[in-house]
Amino acid sequence: MKREKFLKDAKLEPARFYRNPSDVMRDRRLTHDDRLEILTAWERSAEHGQEFIRQELHRVREQLESGESEFAGRRYVAHSHRA
Q1: Which residues contact 31 (CB under 8 A, 6 or more apart)?
Q2: How high is the pLDDT of residue 43?
Q3: What is the predicted pLDDT for the residue at 49?
Q4: Beta bridge partners of 70
Q5: How far is 10 from 4, CA to CA, in rounded Å?
Q6: Span 53-80, pLDDT tens digits
Q7: What single string gives the DSSP state of each residue in the chain?
Q8: pTM for the full model?
Q9: Separation between Cα atoms, residue 24 and residue 38, nearest integer Å
Q10: Where on the phi/psi map is residue 67: left (φ > 0), alpha (ψ -120 to 50), or beta?
């Protein structure tokens, strides 16, 4: 799948590509801005009955916005890469 198409689709339906919001952080194909856009889209689409997902989205977004977080035993430092 081409990167542009993947990003477009992931921003429309994040749950189709990721099991949990923290999986967005682990995806090395994404830039900092891509992650924020995908998490924002997921927040908009999360239904009221998905309290766990809403809480996880909030936690992951805070970590992303702080610029640092721990995932899979590696230190993740957010960098924005713009073309």
Answers
A1: 79, 80, 81, 82
A2: 86
A3: 66
A4: 75
A5: 10
A6: 888 888 998 999 888 555 544 444 444 4
A7: --HHHHHHHHHH-HHHH-SSHHHHHH-TT--HHHHHHHHHHHHHH--TT-HHHHHHHHHHHHHHHHTEEEETTEEEE------
A8: 0.67
A9: 8
A10: left
pLDDT, position 45: 81
Q: Which residue has the tokens 């927040």?
A: 43
CB 80 within 8 A of CB 32: yes
Q: Which residues of 51-68 are buried (b: 16+ CB within 10 A; e: fewer)?
A: eebbebbeebbebbeeee
Q: Which residue has the tokens 């766990």?
A: 52
As given in the structure block, the two tokens for residue 46 are: 């999360």
pLDDT per position as a tens digit, 4-51: 999 999 999 999 999 999 999 999 999 999 999 999 998 888 776 678
